[in-house]
Structures are given as C-alpha cells and as structure tokens.
Design goal:
The chain is an alpha/beta fold. Helix content is 20%, strand content 40%.
C-alpha cells in the first residue's frame, strides 16, 4: 500500500499547507509546470518525487524530468503527462500513449481544473489535481492525496487553499 501526494502547476510556488498535507505520503507525483528546480527540490526533500515537465518549464527542469512517465505502483500501471486532456477529449499525444501503455491511472495537469473521472472506454481513472500554485485563473489551489493498495485506487482527499 502506498499513499500518494499529487499536484500540478505550482509555477514556482509551493503553498505552506502543502508540507503538512504531503508529510505522511510515501511518494509525491507532480504533473508538470513545476516552475523551477527549487520547487522540485523542496518537494523531493519531503518524499521521493516523480515528475514530468510542463509547457512553462525551461531547460533546467526538462533536463531532470521527462515529458511523460509510465510506471507501476503496487499493481496499478500509471501514466503521467502534463498536457493530456480528459476522457473524450484527450490530446493527440495522450491518446497515443494511452492506446500503447494501457494505464489504469492516467494523470495530467495543465488545465488548472481539478477533475477526477472514470474513463470506461479505456478502463482507467483520470485525475487532474488542478493547480497548486498561485499563477493562473483558478481561485482555489488544490492538491490531491490518495492510496494505491494492490490494484485499488482509494481514499482520495483534496486540499483546497484559497488564493
């Protein structure tokens, strides 16, 4: 069993409440637009960090983190990419990766809109954790936490921080 902390679109800013919310997680996953290496280092100092780069991330971030990540956590195949869309409206690149990798959990960021949706057609759960940072149109910053236990994804929690 692993407890996962999931965030996206920090844009170089990590809310103070993030530290306590992520403290009891086993891993932290970041779905892109990290903003700078200092933010990535701050997250990695809390727990092991898996991340992808986003469209605003420069060469420093891109040299450390890939465009997408595919891996297995417990018995759940995971795919993370920054610009991925959502069920029925995936980006072309996400659609190709989903068809090839066949994840059970698909994570993307970019929209700054928190979404958790089942994709019955592809047999996966899609999570977009919204935006944890201050930059963007969102009025509430969000971070997600959940448990992966064997092949089950459960106990999803959301931290909401007014901007």
């Amino acid at each position: 069993m692993k407890k996962i902390g999931l965030l996206s679109d920090t844009h170089g800013y990590l809310p103070g409440k993030a530290h306590s919310f992520l403290a009891d997680c086993d891993e932290i996953w970041h779905a892109g637009d990290i903003g700078d290496l200092e933010t990535a280092k701050a997250l990695a100092s809390l727990k092991p960090l898996r991340a992808v780069y986003g469209n605003i991330d420069g060469t420093g971030i891109r040299s450390f983190y890939p465009l997408y990540q595919e891996f297995t956590c417990e018995k759940v195949k995971v795919l993370i990419i920054h610009i991925g869309g959502y069920p029925g409206k995936y980006s072309r690149e996400a659609r190709e990766l989903i068809d090839r990798i066949k994840p059970k959990l698909f994570i993307s960021g970019h929209s700054h809109i928190l979404k958790v949706m089942n994709d019955h057609k592809n047999g996966l759960l899609h999570i977009n954790p919204g935006a944890a940072g201050k930059s963007g149109f969102h009025q509430i910053s969000t971070i997600v936490r959940f448990i992966i236990d064997d092949e089950n994804i459960r106990d999803l929690e959301i931290l909401e921080i007014p901007k």
